[in-house]
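Summary for the funding panel

The consortium committed to producing paired sequence-structure records for every protein in the target list. Below we show the first two records in order, beginning with the earlier of the two.
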Amino acid sequence: MNGRRPFEERVFARFDAIDARLNGVDARFDAVDARLQRLEVRADDTNSRLEKLEIRSYDTKPIWEQALKEIVDTRRDLSKRFGRIEAVVFETRADLRDVEDRLEKDVEERLIKLERKPNQ
């Protein structure tokens, strides 16, 4: 013994030290577990929000598809109408050229007649 503690005391002291360390490790595991539980709650909340957003996107998807279809149909209809308008414009230009030609010919004929009258 020689001023030292007895063997049993030393063993119990070691057991107490081990027990204290295990309690510390256990407390840290409890803290980690609590953090993981909070993360799980947040993940569940996030999943719930994502599901709601997906449901909304499914709800609005047919609306957007219909809107896109109507836009495409309107574009085609406008393209057809512009084609018709363009054809009318070309036809009007051709008619205008014909009128101009006839008018010019008529004016020339009248001028020729006017020039002949004084000579006669």
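The next record, for a separate protein in the list, is shown here:
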Amino acid sequence: MSFFNDKRNIRPGPNGDPVGGLCHRVAIVATRILDSATIRLDSHKQTVQLTGLRDDVAMPLQVRGGKNAQSAGILQNLRITRLRHRPRFARIRATVCYPITVDVEDANGVKQRGNAVASEPIDIVMFVPRESVFPFEVVADCAMVCEEGRCLDGGKVELCTCTTIIIKVVCEADLLIPAYGIAPAPPASHYTSEVCREFFDLPLHPRGK
């Protein structure tokens, strides 16, 4: 059955609403967030393997900072266990991995940027929907900043990080939303130099006390 054969009158198209100004119903494909949870780790220490440094690096190294290279994380060993006493909830266990960059300085004062992969284990409870034809997904967004750390043997570094991880239960959905019609494109504002305006704003003659 298509939108235009449905007898429930939910088909997209002009449906004027003089009170609210609505004039369309639009079907869009969107990522629907069914549940989300935020995990914050303050002054958290973790050890990572540093790669990507030049071969002529002079030891020892000093860590000058670090941050996440991208926000999307990868969930490894994901396990979803539904709770018997809470049918719509589940225990979600996984290891969240995300790439980071670490700024270091060698014994000669040469600064370099290395690459590493940080990982954090999670064990949380979240809402999960019932089984469906098109299943849901569990995804992670990660943000990390490092202000200090120390270098270990074997190219490893210990970082003291501040980390925020957002776990989301998402699914692709066709949503029917109200719309106000086609969005008009406003005219562009052309760039003009402010040199003349600043010049004309100056006093004509020097001012005394």
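Regarding this second record: The chain has one domain: 10-181. The two ends are 84 Å apart (CA to CA).
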